[in-house]
Protein: ABC transporter ATP-binding protein
Amino acid sequence: MNETTIPAIGIERLSHGYNGKEVLHDLDLSVAAGEIFGFLGHNGAGKTTTMNILTTLVKPVSGTVSLFGEDAFADSGRARSMLGYLPENVNFYDNLTTLENLHYLARLSGLRDPKPRILQTLDYLDFTAHLDERVGSFSKGMRQRVGLAQAILHEPKILFLDEPTSGLDPSGVKQVRELVLKLNRERGMTIFMNTHLLSEVSLTCTSIGVLSAGRLVYHDSLQETLQRFPTENSLEEIYYAVGGSNGGMG
Ligand SMILES: Nc1ncnc2c1ncn2[C@@H]1O[C@H](COP(=O)(O)OP(=O)(O)OP(=O)(O)O)[C@@H](O)[C@H]1O
Structure:
């Protein structure tokens, strides 16, 4: 396999379960470098479980995960240096400022002298004005941008976002969308995004996968998807057409 064909994310025969009950069944998936991949699925389909495995937080029962061709669990420290993760709910210390929170988290993850990089990242995210404000006073959208700063501080090659626009107002949704596109365009980051918001997928993603009850029932480029389903008026209809029909999207 040469450089150009090594996927950013390679998943082979991945299975996982809790308390003896399997929730991910034999998942195979590959995401090319430079993609913005939208991972769709109803509640309980297994999206967060998959993301927790891809970010090496959870070791799978069976199967392999590789990041740019390297086994993620052979050296999870190395894998973590390649990836950034914005979980659905990030916990910050409300009585600490943006800078103090990011400094603390950066030191925890082993970055020495992180301040210059924090300043540079906040500048990139257009958030410098809130550097010395306490996170406890922030809106959900502002907290999300601090979360994004935390996720990209070490300049990862792959960014994992779990429902990044959940609970945001329309302007917050737009801000996150624009930042995701900017990180992909300017820094070449591969983005893997769990989402319920089908409208966001068509505005942001280059390829989509649909997970239904722990099985990948669809994976293709957004362009192919829109061509293949010309009569479906929305991505939601496409979602149902390809098998995500057992449950609501909320
Ligand atoms: N720590 C856990 N212990 C036991 N069961 C779990 C655990 N985490 C998830 N599950 C179960 O695994 C299944 C998949 O959950 P998961 O959170 O991965 O789905 P999801 O697609 O991310 O759903 P949502 O959109 O609601 O976040 C669900 O049936 C869930 O109840």
